[in-house]
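Hi there. Long-time user, first ticket. I'm pasting a complex I've been working with (about 698 residues overall). I'd like to know whether the download I got is complete or cut off, because the file seemed smaller than I expected. Thanks.
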Amino acid sequence: MVFRLQKITKKLTQSLILTTCLFSASAFAANANDEWVTVSLSQEDSEGANALIALVRNMDRFSAWLNDEELGPTTQIMVKRPANNPEAKVTTNSVDVVDPVSGEKSRKIVKTSRQVTSLRYIVTERDARDPSILKRVLIVKEEMITEFEVGKESQAKVTYNYPALNVAGENLASASSEAYRAAADQLWSLDGPDCIDFAGGSEICRIKDAATKLIRAASRKSKLLAEKIAQAKASKRVVLDTQSRKSVTFEENTATGAVRNVVLSGFIKSPTEKLLAPDSASAWVVKIDVGGKFSVEERKVSEADQVDISSLKFK
Amino acid sequence: MKKNKNKKIIISTFLLFVFTLSAEISTRSLKVSEYMMAPVSTWADVPESSLVTKETTASGELGFRVVHLKRSTQASKQAAVDLAATGIVQSGDIFLSFRPEWDGTLAYAHMQLGVSHAALAFVVEQGGSKFIHTLETPINYSSPMNSSHHYGDLNAIHVIRPNLNNEQRANLSGWAKKILANPGRFGFFTDYATPWYKRGANRTPLDQIKELAKVATSGGSFSAYCSEFVWTFLGLRDCNPASYAPGCEKVIFGTQNGALTGLVPGLAGNAGLIQGPEAALVSGGKNETEKKQLLTQSAFVDILTSPDQLAGRMSSGHRAVAEANSDLMKFINQGYYAGGEPAEVAAKINSGVTDNFSPTSFMIRSNAKLDGFKYVGTVVFDR
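Hi, the file is complete. Here it is re-exported in full:
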């Protein structure tokens, strides 16, 4: 297909990644005889789908923040969102990557174009019981500034206060195991509910295991992926799709939990593609195949699936 | 209430998903609120198939007949082959794109029962293979269920059956073949609030059926949004395409002009564009108290409003229409349903509504047991 080159007005993604091995074998490995089932992340965990799409859109910032290190095995990823209150009129989300073990250095904040993607640290209840970890986490946290983008027009920078952590920090000076435990009780338990109330009429929601796995895998080759995305921007073959519903599907191995064939749709489209109806979806998808290769593909009807209308017999 | 706002509400294509009702009243395959389900009393008889399960709520009066196709066949011709093999779909049936993810979002999306698009289905054969082929606008979406621009993103499809005899099905098949043979004559019209008969002076809904026949047989152009096209096409069921002469056209909805108004108090022999949830609950055996509670506390309520959270559930176009109608939905909730469904309020709302044919219309008529429409089943890709 030939595309008319067109100036891209959106500053983000338009990816087009050639075949790039992004995801480590461990995320995708499975035995040949295991059963694979297709999962719609958008239906099972819409917050997780949004978080993944936000990070892929902003892979350059994500990579810079990671400094080419992958997220650690203890990483928890959460989405901060407006509480489910239509009157609140709060419209931004944030994606929080929580990594108490590797959180030793100050890193840049990652941000998306529409939904804010901020990265910061918090400790889990279990980790908070280790004074050394808690101390390191608190130091990092206090140096951080989180950027919020409000709507599409304006931006605002605000310092992000984490009350629970601040309390824990105050207790740090007179540390005792009981004090740490008391502080930890105010933090989010790993065994707790999916969402907890947070300041400012918002709540923090844990994304589910599958999305966490995908994001963690994406962190492993983030620099390489960011480079390929930059190449894609320059190619101008695709642009950001602001119309379609966003969705993520993947295949999961029922025995090992491994994932493969991740497809992000509603994310990009060709510059010349017309999405006529409100229900239309772009034919272009971002895909990660069985081998962990990352590519941008146009869904096409196969030759075998094409029909000749003149030869159809209506029953 | 502004007139144009009222118009927008009723028409557009919309879809949804809800979690306001607890899991125990959801069906296994499609976890949505009761008012988005199909009343069992409206289900058509279909041949038995190993791919079909009946999934209902505890009362057994609301639910879905689920046709389970393989996930791997989604957006491929194989899905159309597998569906035809069940024998469940008949030529002239209506496909309604169903978005269960609209449940628990915006009131307008709830009102549309999660239905975002309408198409026609035909059983066809080619090279010894039987499969389903659709007819729809945008016309290039017409396909053996594999148009990348629609079926690649569609996880569930309701099948609704109009009341057709064999001769009528044969007529419609003939018209479908004529139209598919000349796709360039048929455009997509994007304004769901303005049906063809409102785009020119002194036109009636019946006139647009004649116009479609004229273009299909003699040339010219005819543009329509998806549900308008389906409604218009079904008006040709008594017309033989091989010997067409004006006069055989007949509207498919039994209303005064063939289109639907907004509200019909008490669902007295009729049902309006707003009344899909109400009709489902009434035919699903809910009493007045239960119905009022569900309509005012769940259906006509904006539940999820953040654009970021809605991005994974509906397109920006659907979201914009829903947001634009938020105030009207509140008025319908508080002014009409919570207020005891006063006729004067219905009349006020109807005065601002263009008689129309939304994608949900066909499910509304089925839910309300009108015009012979029946619910056949819901295709999902979960095997």
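A couple of notes from our side: The CA atoms of residues 63 and 226 of chain A lie 7 Å apart. Chain A touches chain B through 54 residues (CB under 8 Å).
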